[in-house]
Amino acid sequence: MSRLRVWHPxxxxxxxxxxxxxxxDLHRQAPPLATLGDAQRYLEVIAEEAxxxxxxxxxxxxxxxxxxxxxxxxxxxxxxxxPAARGAGLASRALDTLSRQLFxxxxxxxxxxxxxxxxxxxxxxxRAGYVHEGVERERLRYVDDGGRPERFDVVRLARLASxxxxxxxxxxxx
Length: 174
Fold this sequence. Notes:
Layout: E1 2-5, H1 9-21, H2 36-46, E2 50-55, E3 58-69, E4 74-81, H3 90-104, E5 109-115, H4 119-127, E6 131-143, E7 149-160, E8 172-173
Parallel strand pairs: 1-8, 4-5
Antiparallel strand pairs: 1-2, 2-3, 3-4, 5-7, 6-7
Helix pairs in contact: 1-2, 3-4
């Protein structure tokens, strides 16, 4: 069974560390995670804003609403999945489920950005009802393993409370 749930930093640290070790792209989602302690501290930091994507009792990903602004009714969304959990629509369902919850709680606009060279992440957002709003050219700068900096364009997407909801089965939200 797939569901959203709160993070349990001590219990979930091993799964998070394994997910980050198995995927070269996840290192851009968090500070360096080299030990169980690093993963636990990361989860402690994000626990207030993020939910675990859980499959059969194991955390396989994260969906997060950061920078919530009650005055403007906005939040910044993000998500990641362990490589073994990708390809089944789980991230889109998680993003849609949290988005619907935030709209029900009174937020109006949810925003996110995905690297232009990451079509899978863009597709996750589109399936969850997010609409393209533009491209921020050379927005991100990452340094590769050889110490060389590289710039990435970012596709900006957003979903409004008034936008049509996608036809996705929501995840249970425990």
